[in-house]
Structures are given as C-alpha cells and as structure tokens.
Amino acid sequence: MVACALAVPAAAHAATLKGQVAGQPYLAGGDRTAVPVLLSRETAGRAKLASPMGLAVVSRRTPLRAPGGQTVLPGRLRPGDKFTATGTVPRAMRKAAYPRLTFKRMTVTKRAKQLSTAELEELLAQTRRELGSLSATVSNLSGATQRALADLGARVRSLRSDVDGLTAGLAAAQADLTALSGQLIAAAADLRGRIDLVRADLQPQVTSALNQITALGATIGSCGVPSSVVGRLCTLEAAFGALDPTAVAALTDRVTQVSSALTSTVASLTGLTLVGDLPATLTAPVLTAIGQLTGLQGTVAGLSGTVATVSGDVAGLQGSVGTLLTQVGAVDVTGMSATLTNLLGTLGSDPAGLTSSVVGGLQTTLAGVQSDVNGVLTNLGAVNVQALNTTVSGITGNVATIQTTLTGVCSAVNGQSIPVLGSLPLIGAVTGLLTATLTDACP
Prior knowledge:
Layout: E1 12-21, E2 26-29, E3 32-39, H1 41-46, E4 53-59, E5 64-66, E6 70-72, E7 82-90, H2 91-94, E8 100-110, H3 117-220, H4 229-241, H5 245-270, H6 274-277, H7 280-330, H8 333-347, H9 356-381, H10 385-416, H11 425-437
Helix pairs in contact: 3-8, 3-9, 4-7, 4-10, 5-7, 5-10, 5-11, 7-10, 8-9
C-alpha cells in the first residue's frame, strides 16, 4: 500500500474507511486528485460522519495498489472500484453533508468493469490514432486497389482481345484442318490406287523373273546331271583333259622334223638314173621306196597343218569353256530365287508398307535380277555344246591319226619297209642321213 502523507489539523482523528468510488476523479489543485466516494454505513458510522457521500483527496502521483499485484494512479480510478483507506476525519467534516476527507493510505480491493474517464479518453485517443493509421492504410490500400483494379482491367481487356484473336485463329485453323483432312483422304485414296497399279505392274514382272530363274536353274543344272548345261560342260572339260597341249606341241615338232628329213631324202634320190645305175632286180623296189617316201612327204606336210590347226582349236576351246564355266558359276540362282520370293511377299503385304522408297528399291532389285538372268541366258545361248562336242571328237580323232601315221613313217624310214636302200652306196648314204635326221623325231 502506498501512503499519502497529509497535514492533520487539531481535533481530527484517524479512521479506517471502506467504500467505493462514486464518480470520476478530477484534479483538486497542485499534485492532488479528488475522488468522489460512497462510504459504507458501518465505517461512516464509526468515523461519526453524518453522510456516507464524500470526497477523498489523495496524492496525484502516488500509485495505489490494486488486485493481481497491479497498481493504478488515482486519476484512473473507475466508478464502482472498491477500496479500503486510512485517513483523518476533522471535527468540522463530521456534520458536513459532503465531507472532504484526506486519505493517508488507500488500497483498491476490487476493480470495476466500467472504465474511468481517463482510461476512456486515453483509449479514445489511442483509437483515434489507430483510426488515423487505419484510415491512412485504408487510403493507401484503396489507392493500390484502384490501381491494381485498373491494371487488372487493362489486362482483362488485353486478354479478351487476345482470346478473340485466338478464337478467330482457331476457327481458321479448324477450317484449314477440315480442308487438310479432305485433302489427306483424297491423297490416301490416290496413293492406294497408285500402289495397286504398282503392284499390278510389278507382280507379273516378278513372277515372270522367278519363273525364268527357276527354268534357268533347271537348265544350268550341275555336273551330276549330264543332260544339263553344266553337266555337258563338265563332260566336255573331262574330254579336254585327255588332250595334253604339251604332247600336241611335241607332236607338231616331230612332224616338222620328219617332213624336213623326207624332203631332203626325196631331193637326193630324184636325180638318180635308176635303170642304168641299179641292177634290174633292185629297180622295182627302189621305185617303190621312192613312191613311198614321196607319199610320206605329202602326208607329213598335211599333218603339220592339221596339228597346228588342232593346237589353235584346243587353246581357244579351253579358254571359251573356262570363261563360260566361270560365268555360270558366278550366277547365284538360289539367291536370285530368294530375292524374288521376298519381293512377292512384299508385294502381297499391306499397301501401307509400299512407300516410294520401297517401290524404288523393288524396281531396282528387279532390274538387277532381270539383267543377271538376261546375261546368263545370252552367254548360254552363244554356246553350241553339240558343236563343241563334235569339235572335241574331231580333234581327238585327228591326234590319233597323226600319231598312227607318224609311227608308220618312222617305221618305213628306219628300213622296216625298204631294207634294200641300205645296200647301195649312194642310196645308203642318203638313207644314213635320213636315219640320223629322224633319230630324235621318231620313237
């Protein structure tokens, strides 16, 4: 409790008073505050006061204790606040209708809910300040809101303009898409028709090429099928194996040597007078021998040309057959058949798979296959296998004839058919020359 010290005149006594604040406190001059109070009858009776209504005077700046450990200044006392006070009651105030009492100590025991005038004024001032701040805030907010609404309105107007433009653009795009859809449908129908035409054009070509390749495979055949081209060529190649070009060349050399020797011998014997120089018994054998030598000379001369021709024919025929076998062996009939089978499968598939690139590839592949087939057929058509067989048979017979004739000539020259020639000196010398010349030529 905060005490308020006052000057007490004589004839006054101290008393403890209880009551409640009955009105708004106010300044009593100087540093004092006057508080209208209503004292309880009991305490007013003990203080010998004639009236419970009075005026309490307390120090202005001395805070009073209040409930809850709080303090309150006298000027902030509320009407209805209950208090307990200690003060002096002057004699002159006992009979007054509205006594003025000075309290030394005053304690608030219960606070009233109704605010005091000072509190209301302070609250009102604070409210005014807050209202001013709120008004400024609201003004600022109002201005910002107005500006934001104006900006939002401009944005909405711009957005509406954009939406209108977009709507118009979408309508135009929809019209374009509708037109494009019709064009795509027409293009798809046209493409399907073109694909059908391509299929109708390529299908017979592929089928024909496949049939040609199948026939080509059967015609070409293999060495195991003697009636096929390859079989006949294999037979022909085996026949060529019996013709040794080295032996034919050696035979040519032998025939040339024998022909030269016979020519020299006949030239030596031609100048003799057989009737005068030879005995009558030798004339007929010598004439016969001369005739034989002359015939041998012609035969050997003919063999020389035949052997040269046979050698050229063998070399050319072997080259032709080798080239043909190489060409035939390079043809992949199985691969071409598989390629055309794949083409047929592609042509029979869904038209969506026949794009321009696929069709172009099919046409290129088909052209390549047809070119290969035509090339092989051309090469095969240029080969007369029957004529080749006839030529080989003729060459084989000519070689055998040459060998037989040459053996006969050598036998005759060696004295087996004309032994009488060795008994004459001159003819013996010629015969010796012939024998020496044919030593290397005859076996």
